[in-house]
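In this section we walk through a basic example: taking a raw amino acid sequence and producing a predicted 3D structure, encoded as discrete structure tokens. The instruction is simple. Fold the sequence below.
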Amino acid sequence: MPVIPKIAGSMSIVSSLVDIHKTAMIFSKEEKNKTMGDNVVSRSIGTQKADYVSFKDAKRKNWCNDRKLFFTLKEDFSAVKGYLKGALDGIVRYLPKIALSLGAIIPKKHKYVSYISTIALAGAEIWDFLRYGTGIFERKDYLKRK
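The resulting token sequence is shown next.
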């Protein structure tokens, strides 16, 4: 049982899953903030109307308004939606690495499949570093907006 392919495959899967999770958390926060921003104006206008001036009533309305703004089910669902969207985006990006990592870890009888998967995984990691880390193969089109 080859040890080097198992270690390389395990490290690659763990780093891919960590990156997928962090990407999904960013998408989740963005989606929740977007939903909260959309709801702030509509909720604030409806809660600040009063027939007479009263400090106690204003304080009570502000307390209720704060609870509505920050603890709603709609924002929680939007956060879950954003997490799933980010996770799917990350899985699509890391699918070849995950497949090569599993190819390096799983085979028990055919150790050459493990070695070939490990070599391909090393090539994919080097390509990923050169493309995203250094920006060598990045297209320099300054007129195109991202």
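Looking at the output, two observations stand out. DSSP finds four helices and no strands in the chain. Residues 3-47 form the longest helix (45 residues). In the next section we compare this with other chains.
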